[in-house]
Structure formats: structure tokens, C-alpha cells
Write a structure and sequence with these properties.
By secondary structure, the protein is of the alpha/beta class. The chain is 23% helix and 23% strand. The protein has 13 helices and 21 strands. It has a 21-stranded mixed sheet, with helices on both faces. Helix 9 links the parallel strand 15 (307-310) and strand 16.
């Protein structure tokens, strides 16, 4: 329970970093932020669910983010701020989370009695300004009378904070959601339980919802998602099965969507997928799919894509035609030949790739004129072929290389401008993870992903990392 709880805190922080708002100037500018705290590392679908570790024994990590990722903070210092600070100090205490010494999140969960009592006592001592700064609440238990009083006090001042209901129990989840929506009007809502048709329809009438995470059972394969007037991004997963099956009309009433995240094995018989009509997509992340989508024409259906994170072997020719693409996480079976083709892309700033070929030559990456942030996971043998990437600001490498002192020293000398960090597979260890999911911030997405990713990420076989 303790491990699960600390993961929840980490995920909750991702709610702060979600890209649900964009800065008007350079919305996709990538930069590094430094996060301090006693945690194990940073992960997310944009990092192919590998963990970027701490720098040695120092409790901080540097990670690349896009400006849009940070705008969700809704003002770290005032309500007009559109960027996250360059430095974050994280402090998780029992049922609360502090960022830069300010309370941003409260959790009510089973198995930690103070989880229902401590926030209530805390709220009574907080000023209105402090309550207004809270960003999210997370629920994984019934809401006691004491907790209800505290939440009512919060809602009277800050009704728009984000809500995560983690439980997969439909009865408990529905009870919590119905109660919360009497007092709160969240913009970002993540649900671990399955909604019935009436609940989904009722929820669609909540015009405040901009970001939605849904547990999609196989019984939804013929369902059409009702229209959400303000919905910009959606994340779908199946908490009970390994497959995620939705019909071709699922998104037909929400063609305005700009961000889509899919966690699950998706198999399609043609390129005309349920999402192919989402022509406004700017960000698309899909964890697993069958090889029938290897020839999917991203440039044809989603010409405005700025960030693409995908497991499988997508059509490189199509990716090269995405003229606005800034961030690419390519989880397929990358070869030197494929990498040489990708290196012709005109706009990529951040590249995340899997080193699956021991003879991989990375020297062609010098042709990516705007490449500043490079993350190589799983394996990196010919690190000398990276030496010509003099413009790199950031490089994350497999921990085996990072902790080889001689090779690391040579690499750092060759790339003096780059901050170099280690990464490894999905073992969570005894610490917690800051999860950067582009479309949702709930712990169960990472949990499902970690038990489902196949190293090649293409044929839907379920294995542990």
C-alpha cells in the first residue's frame, strides 16, 4: 500500500505538468526544468516509460518539457503565469503534496487513516489564498463526513481544481463522483472506474471539462462518446483487459480534440482508425498497437502533430512529412537505416529512441539541425558515434553506460554543453516516480503500461519490463 501511495503522489504532480493549456508565444518551446525531492526518477509515455534517474546521490533530476506542459500550473506565482518555474522542490507528506513549499494536492485513500483526518485539520488552518492555490484532489475511498466538510470548504474558494478518482469500483467511484460534482467544476477529470451511459451523458453536460481520462471496457466497442463542449484532450485505457477496443464512431462528436493518449493493445484492420478523423490533433500518444498500423499516414490525417509518442514501427516517410513535429518518442525496432531516414526531419527538437541494435550508428543525428534533447533507452554500445552532437543540451543514456566511469567521462568531455542523466527500465524500487503523461495524471495508467510493454512494442504480447 505504501508503494502505491507514493506513486499516487508522483502521478498527482503530473497533473501540474499536463499540457492542457498552451502559451501563445512558442507553445512548443522545449526547455529543461530541475526537480528536487527524494524520489526515484521521472518517467512517462513521452520517455517510452523508462525511468530517468537521479544524478548520483543528489536528490534532483533535470528533464526536458515543452512550454505547453507547464502552462497547467495556472500560475505558480500568480494566475497569469503560463510557465512552470525552472526549479521545483517536491515534498510529499502522508496525504498531502507540497511543491515549492506550497500545498498543491490532497489525497483521501484507503489504508492510511490520517488520509481522511489530516487534510481536514490542515484546511481549517489555511488562508483563502492558500486554499485557492491547491491544484488537485485524489480520492480512493469513501468520503467521510469529516473529509466532506473539508472539501466543501475548499470548493467554496477553489471549485475548479482537478479531480482524480482512482478506485475501479463502479459503486464507490460513482458515489464519490456524484458527491464531488455537487461542489466542484473540474477542468481535468481522471476516473479509474467505468461510467455507465447515463453517467457519461451527465458528465458531458459539465462544460468545464477540458481533459478527461476514462476506463474503457470492451463493452464500449460500439459506443459513441457524447459531445463535450470544452474537451481538448482525452486519455483512454482498459483497467480490466489488455485490449482496448473502440468503434470507428467513438470520437465522431468530439472532432475538436487536440490531444489523444491511448494505453492498451489496439488492433485495427485498416488505416481508418477511430481517431483518423481527428484532424486537429497536436499531440498523439499510443502505447501499443498491432502491426496493421505500421503504414498509418499520420501526415495525412493529423498534419498538425507537434508531439508523437508511439510504440511500434510507424511509417518513417509519413513522420518526415509532419512539418510541425517537435517531439518524437519512437518505440519501434529502430535500425541505423531507419535512424538515417529520421535524421532528415526538419523540426525535431526532442528525440526519444530505443537502442535495440548493438551496432547502431548515431552519427546521422547531426543532421537534425534543431535537436537539443536526446534520450536513448535500453541499450547504447557505440556511444562514440554521439561525439559529433555538439549542440545537445541534454542527453539521457542507459544507466550501464552512465555508471561506467571511463566511458562516461569520455562522453561528457565530447559533449561539454550537455547535461547527462541515466535511465533504466520500469522498476520503481523503493522511491516514487514523477510521471509525465501528456494527457492524464493517474497512477493506474503507468501501472498498466509497465506490465504490458513488450520490448519491441509492436505485436501486443504482454511481458514485464
Amino acid at each position: 500500500m505504501r508503494t502505491r501511495k507514493i506513486i499516487v503522489y508522483a502521478i498527482a504532480l503530473s497533473l501540474i505538468l499536463l499540457p492542457w493549456a498552451c502559451k501563445k508565444e512558442e507553445p512548443n518551446r522545449t526547455r529543461l526544468i530541475t526537480v528536487h525531492g527524494k524520489y526515484a526518477g521521472v518517467s512517462g509515455i513521452d520517455f517510452l516509460f523508462r525511468v530517468i534517474n537521479l544524478n548520483d546521490s543528489i536528490h534532483y533530476i533535470s528533464i526536458p518539457i515543452q512550454t505547453g506542459d507547464a502552462a497547467a500550473i495556472v500560475g505558480f506565482y500568480d494566475n497569469n503565469t503560463t510557465e512552470l518555474p525552472d526549479t521545483l522542490y517536491i515534498d510529499n507528506q502522508d496525504s498531502v503534496l507540497y511543491v515549492n513549499h506550497k500545498l498543491v494536492g490532497i489525497e483521501i485513500f484507503y489504508g492510511f487513516p490520517s488520509g481522511v483526518i489530516y487534510p481536514s485539520l490542515l484546511i481549517k488552518e489555511m488562508s483563502d489564498d492558500e486554499i485557492e492555490y491547491i491544484k488537485y484532489i485524489s480520492i480512493d475511498d469513501s468520503i467521510s463526513a469529516d473529509a466532506q466538510n473539508a472539501l466543501k470548504q475548499i470548493a467554496g474558494i477553489n471549485p475548479k481544481l482537478d479531480i482524480t478518482i482512482e478506485t475501479d469500483s463502479a459503486a464507490l467511484g460513482s458515489q464519490c463522483l456524484d458527491w464531488l460534482l455537487q461542489y466542484f467544476t473540474p477542468e481535468h477529470l481522471s476516473l479509474g472506474f467505468v461510467l455507465d451511459s447515463l453517467q457519461l451523458l451527465k458528465l458531458s453536460h459539465l462544460n468545464s471539462v477540458k481533459s478527461l481520462t476514462l476506463n474503457v471496457p470492451l463493452s464500449w466497442q460500439n459506443k459513441v462518446l457524447p459531445h463535450f463542449a470544452s474537451l481538448e484532450q482525452i486519455s483512454l485505457f482498459n483497467n480490466f483487459e489488455d485490449s482496448l477496443l473502440i468503434g470507428n464512431d467513438f470520437f465522431s462528436k468530439n472532432l475538436q480534440l487536440e490531444k489523444l493518449n491511448i494505453i492498451g493493445i489496439v488492433k485495427q484492420n485498416s488505416i481508418y482508425t477511430p481517431w483518423h478523423k481527428l484532424s486537429h490533433l497536436k499531440q498523439f500518444s499510443i502505447l501499443m498497437y498491432g502491426d496493421t498500423l505500421d503504414n498509418y499516414p499520420y501526415h495525412q490525417f493529423h498534419p498538425h502533430l507537434e508531439r508523437l509518442s508511439i510504440f511500434g514501427d510507424p511509417d518513417v516517410t509519413s513522420i518526415l512529412k509532419l512539418k510541425k513535429l517537435r517531439w518524437l518518442a519512437y518505440g519501434g525496432t529502430l535500425s541505423t537505416e531507419v535512424l538515417n531516414k529520421l535524421s532528415k526531419h526538419p523540426t525535431i527538437e526532442t528525440l526519444v529512441i530505443r537502442g535495440v541494435d548493438s551496432l547502431m550508428d548515431y552519427s546521422s543525428l547531426k543532421n537534425l539541425k534543431h535537436l537539443e534533447y536526446l534520450i536513448i533507452v535500453d541499450e547504447l554500445n557505440r556511444d562514440t558515434t554521439l561525439f559529433n552532437l555538439k549542440n545537445l543540451s541534454y542527453l539521457s543514456i542507459p544507466e550501464e553506460l552512465y555508471y561506467d566511469s571511463a566511458r562516461f567521462a569520455t562522453l561528457q568531455k565530447a559533449l561539454p554543453k550537455a547535461i547527462i542523466t541515466p535511465n533504466h527500465g520500469g522498476c520503481m524500487g523503493s522511491g516514487w516516480l514523477l510521471i509525465l503523461l501528456p494527457l492524464s495524471g493517474v497512477w493506474f495508467l503507468f501501472h498498466k503500461a509497465m506490465i504490458k510493454i513488450k520490448h519491441a512494442g509492436r505485436d501486443g504480447e504482454i511481458t514485464n519490463i
